[in-house]
Amino acid sequence: MAWSIDARIPVTLLPDAAALPGALAAGRPAALLAEGAVPRHAAAPATEIFAPEAAQHPAACVCCAGRSAAAQALDRLFQDRVRGRIAWFDRVVVLAATPEGRAELAQALAQDPLTTARFRRAPE
């Protein structure tokens, strides 16, 4: 019998800000990753923001070859969690308002090595 346990932190992309209170209230403690700014009514034990970066240069040029803002924000959440700087959370809910923000998050979850080692997309 084979076991398959995925211990990575699940990440759920919310459809809009109206879904935030229900997502935070449902289930185990959740951190909030928000594009731009954290909504005032957010009651997450930990929050982080990111701003999508507009690609203005050729792919893989020296100035753009770094990690995306979404990947870096998830990294900050993870590091603060393991160092005890913020309240413990078992999942992340994401409020990305723009298509660019959603695309950047999807790219980080699919292609960024550190992000894929620590986080996974939650089942829909």
Helix proportion range:
25-40%
Low-confidence stretches: none
- Helix/strand-derived class? alpha/beta
Number of strands: 5
Number of structurally distinct domains:
1
Structure description:
The protein is of the alpha/beta class. It has one domain (9-121). It is built from 4 helices and 5 strands. The protein has helices at 20-25, 69-82, 99-111, 113-118, and strands at 9-13, 30-35, 46-50, 91-95, 119-121. It starts with 8 loop residues before the first strand and ends with a strand.
Please write out the topology.
Layout: E1 9-13, H1 20-25, E2 30-35, E3 46-50, H2 69-82, E4 91-95, H3 99-111, H4 113-118, E5 119-121
Parallel strand pairs: 1-4, 1-5, 2-3, 2-4
Summarize the structure.
It is built from 4 helices and 5 strands; from the N terminus they run βαββαβααβ. With 124 residues, the protein is α/β, with parallel strands linked by helices.
Keywords:
single chain; 124 residues; alpha/beta; 5-stranded parallel sheet; 4 helices
